[in-house]
Amino acid sequence: MERIEEFFKRKDIVISAKRYGVDALGAMAQGLFCSLLIGTILNTLGTQLNLPFLNDIGGFAAKMSGPAMAVAIGYALHCPPLVLFSLVAVGNSANELGGAGGPLAVLVIAIIAAEMGKMVSKETKIDILVTPLVTIFVGVVLSVLIAPAIGTAASAVGQVIMWATERRPFVMGILVSVIVGIALTLPISSAAICAALGLTGLAGGAAVAGCCANMVGFAVMSFRENRWGGLISQGLGTSMLQMGNIVKNPRIWIPAILTSAITGPIATMIFKLEMNGPPVASGMGTCGLVGPIGVYTGWVDDVAAGLKTAITAMDWIGLVLICFVLPAIICWLLGIALRKLGWIKEGDLKLN
Length: 352
Prior knowledge:
Blueprint: H1 2-10, H2 17-49, H3 52-63, H4 65-76, H5 81-97, H6 102-120, H7 127-167, H8 169-185, H9 190-197, H10 201-221, H11 223-237, H12 243-248, H13 254-270, H14 290-304, H15 313-341
Helix pairs in contact: 2-3, 2-4, 2-9, 2-14, 4-5, 4-6, 5-6, 5-7, 6-7, 6-9, 7-8, 7-10, 8-9, 8-10, 8-13, 10-11, 10-13, 10-15, 13-15
């Protein structure tokens, strides 16, 4: 057992929830952002501005989502170069064979292939042959054997959530909004979770509401401590910046969570806000404005497909209220109330 532990330590193989559930998952979301999300944004701009070359660029970027996710995961797992480069093929096979649940298949399979590749890396004199061969062989074989099942399972879970949201928009609007909003602020990836489950439709709209409630909510609520820099870094970056402060005083999270519980059902019940763009955008909120752009992309696609006659004023009002106005007002007011109760003290929301 000691030899195995020493070997794993030498190879930097750490089997832990943090390494796989935080580091790898978070990196996967970045890989998605740098491929599918950027591709979608460019494609939308190309369509709206009538610039076909942007559609071409966006299409190329989107097609590379599988390899981008796998390489990002490998980077998070500290893979040596030959393993890292070999994960391109692994990510492509896992994503394609995983279908609608491709991102989850990539996460699972890329982790296994990466760790196997790390085990054999630099252990032989023909490393340039052995390491890529083991990494790609393990990854592609696993893709053939289990990626379809992983994809089907993830898709089924996502379908159940979306079905439940359609049937019970009030209750599920609260649950989805709160849970995804919490995931966004925790050191895990809400974007990767939404992508893995293929979360779109009303459930995707509720997820967007929850993410915006946390990002915009914390940005506005902490303005007195962090001023404009904090407003931008949290509102357009991530509410995860407050995680250290939440650990010190968990009560500072109450306004954002309550805000998500309010805006979630408003999104599903009143405005029928749907995310019919890429599922990963459901878990991005106002980060780079990806969430609102994803909703808009869905509108454009629905109009083009004849599923929606036009983008209405009510659509825009709902989007602006859910993503920006309501989170800012509600969380700010709740924050004032908690400050008066003494639950939030001066400096509790200060970013270092």
